[in-house]
Design a protein that fits this description.
- This protein is of the alpha/beta class.
- It contains 19 helices and 15 strands.
- Strands 3-2-1-11-12-7 form a six-stranded parallel β-sheet, sandwiched between helices.
- Strand 11, helix 10 and strand 12 form a beta-alpha-beta unit.
- Helix 2 packs across helix 3 and helix 14 runs antiparallel to helix 15.
- It binds ligand ME8.
- Ligand ME8 binds next to strand 1, helix 1, helix 7 and strand 11.
């Protein structure tokens, strides 16, 4: 039975077009999802959009539109971006979907029945930018601690979710499940936050202040707090209370990937909401860091947004994906610079991978008329072959630790060794000596075999270039490689013709 793997991204606010930060989260999830499909797992990858709340309502009004009209207009930009980045999600959820709204309301009715909700007067500081209330002590110099934005003092009647009573349970749960919050430093941050008394969560907004939300089922005058609405997507999207078979086959989620800015919502509010509803917790919440520019977080509101579409037009999807996946270890911040992206393009992609392909395929053309030569039996003793065979377990183990950067580093090590192998074996010298014909055949066979294995393993990371290499090598049926045994059975067919093709990573236009 294949293992199921349910992975989610945050639902992005639709008050502006997506930028490099959103692209990063989705590329990361896509690499995990593709890798699990590669391992033969049953993957369900969900992304989508968060469409309610005052931020969206305000943006819509500023543009002279009704909120629904506005969100319908902007959602296609997200879908188009994901498609141009090669994101293969299985489902795109919108919080304005009827099914989602229905599930949210049912969950609230259920929580009321369970005695988890009460009505009270609320007084606190509200930040529109982060759609969050803060207590006086949480403010930083009188401003929002998360966004630095303005806050307003607000007093109103609202419904509250009894979150505080679950504090001890949550601390114990986090401590007992060391992989629930990753990476470790973020887990410690949440445990640090939980040293302060947890307050109950205000889960409604009066309609006279905000109309654009899901109506609260118990009151004509309230809509549901956007975060309470949005978090429920992770269960509504897979049919909680609607399609029990589907829900039971996918829940608990294997991985919620989020940015560190919204870890508290996912590692405190969300598990408590689930516990209160009697639903199992997700296995892991993985918080990645921020892409920064000149030291500040890249964001739509600070005007330093970096457009992924422009970058993929210039460098191609694979280079953009490679840069984001390779540049930082998941969890840490990364300083974005286009120069750095160009540097990776030139060195890792054009030099290491592109050249390995073009040198190997050119020599094959020159010495063996482009046909894979027959190797000697001892070819599998070659150190480079052994290294290539060991790569599968290494990459799998890195990906199990949610560390694509480490996975890529192992692949690149073999790639660099393969380039060195060419230097050491000097096929051009071997070709001049007829008695070295078998040795020459072995060298080329090893190179092509390494390239075949490398391309198999890179499918989740560089989907286009790996597909191209596999196509040129005429290798098919390698989209899924479930075991190291199957991986070792991958081979380039002796006598098969290899297409050299165009450069995989051509010189950049402005440098040509
Ligand atoms: O928070 N670097 O939506 P959002 C890395 N709707 N990742 C970044 C980033 C950056 N500079 N900027 C944004 C919301 N992100 C809520 C989520 S979930 C139920 C509701 C990514 O549009 C990162 O994943 O503000 C971050 O957590 C997310 O975008 C925030 O997107």
């Amino acid at each position: 039975m294949p293992k199921k793997y349910y992975i989610t991204t945050p639902l992005y606010y639709v008050n502006a077009k997506p930028h490099i930060g959103h692209a990063y989260t989705n590329i990361l999830c896509d690499a995990f999802a593709r890798f699990h499909r590669f391992l033969g797992n049953d993957v369900f990858f969900m992304t989508g959009t968060d469409e309610h709340g005052s931020k969206i309502e305000k943006t819509a009004r500023e543009q002279g539109m009704e909120p629904q009209e506005y969100v319908d207009k902007i959602v296609p930009h997200f879908k188009e971006l994901w498609s141009s980045l090669g994101i293969q999600h299985d489902y795109f959820i919108r919080t304005t979907d009827e099914q989602h709204k229905k599930v949210v309301q049912n969950i609230l009715r259920d929580l009321e029945k369970r005695g988890e909700i009460y009505k009270d007067t609320y007084e606190g500081w509200y930040s529109i930018k982060s759609e969050t209330f803060y207590s006086e002590s949480e403010l930083v110099e009188g401003r929002c601690p998360d966004t630095g934005g303005e806050v307003q003092k607000i007093q109103e009647e609202n419904y509250f979710f009894k979150m505080s009573k679950y504090q001890d349970w949550l601390i114990e749960t986090i401590q007992k499940n060391p992989t629930f919050i990753q990476p470790e430093m973020r887990k410690n941050e949440i445990l640090g936050f939980l040293k302060q008394p947890l307050e109950d969560l205000c889960i409604t907004r009066p309609k006279d202040r905000l109309k654009w939300g899901i109506p609260y089922p118990g009151s004509e005058e309230h809509v549901i707090y956007v975060w309470f609405d949005a978090l429920i997507n992770y269960v509504s999207g897979i049919g909680y209370g609607v399609d029990e078979n589907k829900f039971n086959s996918l829940w608990p989620a294997d991985l919620h990937v989020v940015g560190k800015d919204i870890l508290r919502h996912h590692a405190v509010y969300w598990p408590i909401m689930l516990k209160a509803c009697g639903i199992e917790l997700p296995k892991t919440v993985l918080a990645h860091g921020w892409w920064t520019l000149s030291g500040g977080k890249i964001s739509k509101s600070s005007g330093n947004s970096v457009d992924p579409v422009e970058l993929i037009e210039k460098y191609g999807v694979d280079a953009f994906r490679y840069f984001l996946l390779n540049e930082v270890t998941v969890g840490l911040d990364g300083a974005y610079s286009e120069d750095l992206l160009r540097e990776r393009y030139r060195t890792d992609l054009a030099n290491d991978l592109g050249n390995l392909w073009s040198r190997s395929s050119s020599m094959l053309g020159k010495y063996f008329e482009g046909k894979v030569p027959s190797p000697s039996e001892s070819v599998s003793d070659e150190a480079l072959m052994k290294m290539t065979y060991d790569l599968y377990d290494k990459v799998v183990s890195s990906m199990e630790k949610n560390n694509p950067r480490e996975a890529l580093a192992s692949v690149w090590e073999v790639m660099r060794k393969s380039n060195q192998f060419i230097e050491e074996k000097k096929p051009w010298a071997l070709s001049k000596d007829e008695s070295k014909r078998q040795e020459l055949a072995d060298v080329l066979f090893v190179l092509l075999d390494c390239l075949a294995h490398i391309a198999c393993l890179l499918q989740a990371f560089l989907p286009n270039s790996s597909k191209e290499i596999l196509g040129r090598l005429k290798l098919s049926g390698v989209e899924q490689i479930k075991t190291v045994g199957d991986y070792k059975k991958v081979f380039v067919e002796v006598g098969g013709e290899v297409d050299k093709g165009e450069a995989l990573f051509p010189k950049l236009e402005d440098e040509a």
